[in-house]
Amino acid sequence: MSEEQVQALLQQLQTLEAYMADLMQREEAVVRILQEATNAAESMKALGDNTEYETLVPLGLGAYIKAKVQPNQKMIVNIGAGAAVEQDKDSAINYMEARIKELEVALQQLAAQRQEVGLRLEQDQQEMNKLIQSSHGSTK
């Protein structure tokens, strides 16, 4: 194998490693968002329909204000691109559960891509190891 082929393989390995790191970061981000969405859906479900709740609303930097959540109060749900809509509790929960399913699909796709890239990385590393061994064997 020529020096150019070795350099091309090395560059491909570096590209795959960078792509793998990017996939892992994206996977971690989706896991965090999925957990947040799951927590939000569970909190929405926990709100009673006929009970008034008192809660703390974060103002930032560890400051909070007490607020009352009225029974059957509408919820405001971010739908993306800086837009939010007001929905009743059931609609908000349904929307959140749909988002959770989308995030689970995205997570599965990222895991599949990561596995595919991992296999490719492993193959290329084995090929590089063979090249190194054959070059050491030919220099003896």
Would you kindly provide a written description of the structure presented here, covering whatever features stand out?
It contains two helices and four strands, in the order H-E-E-E-E-H. With 140 residues, it is of the alpha+beta class. It has a domain at 3-47 and 89-139: Orthogonal Bundle (Helix Hairpins), CATH 1.10.287. Strand 3 and strand 4 (83-87) form a beta hairpin.
Based on CA atoms alone, the radius of gyration comes out at 25 Å
N-C termini distance: 17 Å
Q: From the 3D structure, determine the CATH topology of the domain at 3-47 and 89-139.
A: Helix Hairpins
* Class inferred from helices and paired strands: alpha+beta
Largest β sheet strand count, sense and barrel closure: 2 strands, antiparallel
Q: What is the molecular shape? A: elongated
Total number of beta strands? 4
Mean pLDDT: 90
- The amount of helix comes to 55-70%
What is the level 1 CATH name of the domain at 3-47 and 89-139? Mainly Alpha
How much beta, percentage-wise? 15-25%
The H/E string reads HEEEEH
Unreliable parts: none
Q: Count of helices?
A: 2
Please identify, by name, the CATH architecture of the domain at 3-47 and 89-139.
Orthogonal Bundle
Strand order of the largest sheet: 1-2
